[in-house]
């Protein structure tokens, strides 16, 4: 097995929220920590739009940052508080 093929397995060992979206903002990858933090099984997230699942996030700081990263092609790093989860998130957004 090539090293890149093992990335999902490695990401599942991390206690960090790691997720990927397609151009329609649908989850294409969610690691175990992200599923736990988001409160949904991985299968319930994959293929669903982040904004449909979490409509209260539309218009918040993260919403604007992921859209800015997607349109500019530049990574964005920030912290933001998400009240529905009563939690701070450290974001590292990398558009591909």
Tell me what you see in this structure.
This protein has 96 residues and is of the alpha+beta class. It has five helices and four strands. A two-stranded antiparallel sheet has the order 1-2. A two-stranded antiparallel sheet has the order 3-4. A hairpin with a 4-residue loop joins strand 3 (76-82) and strand 4. The two termini are 24 Å apart. The model has no long low-confidence stretch (mean pLDDT 92).
Topology:
Elements: H1 7-13, E1 19-21, E2 27-30, H2 32-38, H3 42-45, H4 50-53, H5 61-72, E3 76-82, E4 87-93
Antiparallel strand pairs: 1-2, 3-4
Brief summary of the model shown:
By secondary structure, this protein is an alpha+beta fold. The chain has helices at 7-13, 32-38, 42-45, 50-53, 61-72; strands at residues 19-21, 27-30, 76-82, 87-93.
Shape from CA axes? globular
Number of strands: 4
* Alpha carbon gap, first and last residue: 24 Å
Instruction: Please give the radius of gyration in angstroms.
Output: 13 Å
Name the beta content range: 15-25%
Order of helices and strands: HEEHHHHEE
Q: Features of this protein?
A:
single chain, about 100 residues, alpha+beta, two-stranded antiparallel ribbon, 5 helices, 4 strands, about 35% helix, globular
């Amino acid at each position: 097995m090539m090293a890149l093929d093992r990335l999902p397995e490695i990401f599942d060992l991390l206690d960090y929220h790691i997720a990927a979206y397609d151009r329609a903002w649908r989850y294409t990858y969610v690691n175990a920590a992200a599923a736990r933090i988001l409160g949904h099984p991985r299968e319930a997230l994959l293929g669903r739009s982040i904004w449909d699942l979490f409509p209260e996030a539309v218009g918040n700081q993260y919403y604007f940052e992921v859209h800015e990263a997607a349109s500019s092609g530049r990574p964005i790093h920030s912290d933001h508080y998400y009240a529905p989860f009563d939690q701070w998130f450290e974001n590292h957004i990398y558009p591909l």
